[in-house]
Design a protein that fits this description.
Length: 189
């Protein structure tokens, strides 16, 4: 049961990395320091005081940067591969009690994959916002992404199974939306 809970926690935090890179790590740092979450061996640095300071500063800078009109789209190009890596690392850091090969397979495939899928959806939302509103609605998209990252991170720490179900629901909704797009474009005018 502990393996399932830690995997759900990891996937919830990985999905939150797809919204914002540093928020899930900051929430994880605070959760570990408060005794709510245990890290796997080798990841103690996440709960350190220097990490807390660094993650807090990085989180604030990331949030501010996404409110700068031209910088938000530029950051998305860097954040996409970074989200995959962050999703894998955060998943590996909390999955405990299983063989390292299986843990890293889960972390890379599921954690990195979920983070990448969520990040791709946010890039699409920001791109659509930039095209349809000339970027005027991008602050709303940024606010929704921050809220999604904070809420999903907190949910993953507090109710990991529910967080995993929310992630699954988000992925299903995104897949349905992607399937509808080609059909709508193929319809004659």
């Amino acid at each position: 049961m502990d393996v399932l809970l830690s995997a759900c926690l990891g996937l919830g935090l990985a999905a939150a990395c797809g919204f914002r890179l540093f928020v899930p790590f900051l929430v994880l740092n605070l959760a570990v320091r408060s005794g709510y979450v245990a890290l796997d061996g080798g990841f103690d640095w996440i709960a350190s005081t220097p990490a807390l300071i660094t993650l807090a500063v990085a989180t604030v800078l990331e949030i501010i940067a996404y409110y700068v009109p031209w910088l938000d789209n530029l950051l998305d190009s860097v954040a996409t591969p970074a989200a995959v890596i962050a999703g894998a690392v955060v998943t590996a850091s909390v999955v405990t009690g299983i063989d390292p090969y299986l843990k890293w397979s889960l972390a890379v495939i599921a954690g990195g994959g979920v983070a990448g899928a969520v990040q791709a959806a946010t890039v699409g939302a920001r791109g659509a916002s930039s095209l349809t509103t000339a970027g005027l609605a991008n602050p709303l998209v940024s606010t929704a992404e921050i809220g999604g990252s904070v809420l999903l991170s907190a949910l993953a720490v507090g109710l990991p199974v529910l967080a995993a179900l929310v992630v699954l629901a988000l992925l299903v909704l995104a897949a349905r939306r992607l399937r509808r797009r080609p059909r709508a474009a193929a319809r004659p005018v």
